Amino acid sequence: MKAFSTVAVLLALALLPLSHLPAAAESSAASSETTNEDIVTRPKLGRAVPFKSVVFSVDPEGKNFRMGKKKVRLVYVMETTRFLKSDGSPANVTDLKPGVEIRGSTRKRDTGELEAVTVKIGPKNTKPYDFPKEAEEGED
To answer: What is the DSSP letter of 112?
Structure first.
C-alpha cells in the first residue's frame, strides 16, 4: 500500500507541470503580441571608424559637411557629435572651414550614410616638438 501511494504521488507530481503548459503557451503568445507593438526601431549603427582628412565644404545650416581631396565623402552632423579644437577646447560645426585639417571618427548608418561621432579641428601637433638635449662629451 505504501509503494502504491508513493507511485501515485510521484505520478501526480510528474503530470502537474504538464497540466499548466497550454495555459502558459497562451499567456506567452499574448505577451509576445504586446511586446511586438511596443518595440521601437532604432537605426542600426556600425562601429566607429577613425578618419583624417581635409574639409571640402560645409553645409550653411550645419547639418553636414564634405571631407576629402580625391574622394569626397558626405558626413552628417548629429546632436551627439562632439567637436573639439586641436588644443582641446570645445568647438562647433561653424568652426569648420574649407581646407582645414580634421580628424575624428564616423559611424555608418544602416542606410549607408556616414554620421560623425567626434571631430577634432586643426592639425594634430600645434606646438613644436622639443628634442632632448644631447649629452655632452665625456659624460656617461
So the answer is: S
pLDDT in tens, 66-101: 999 889 999 999 999 999 998 889 998 889 999 999
Strand partners of residue 23: none
Per the rule left: phi > 0, alpha: psi between -120 and 50, beta: everything else, 104 is left
Tell me the three cell numbers of residue 60.
Answer: 550653411
SS3 content of the chain, % helix, strand, coil (to 5): 30, 30, 45
CA gap 95, 4 in Å, rounded? 87
Euclidean distance between CA atoms 110 and 140, whole angstroms: 61
Q: Whole-prediction pTM value?
A: 0.57
Find the angle CA(58)-CA(100)-CA(102) to the nearest 5 degrees.
Answer: 90
Which letter does DSSP use for residue 87 in this model? T
Give the start-end residues of each E strand in 7-112. 49-58, 64-67, 73-76, 82-85, 101-108
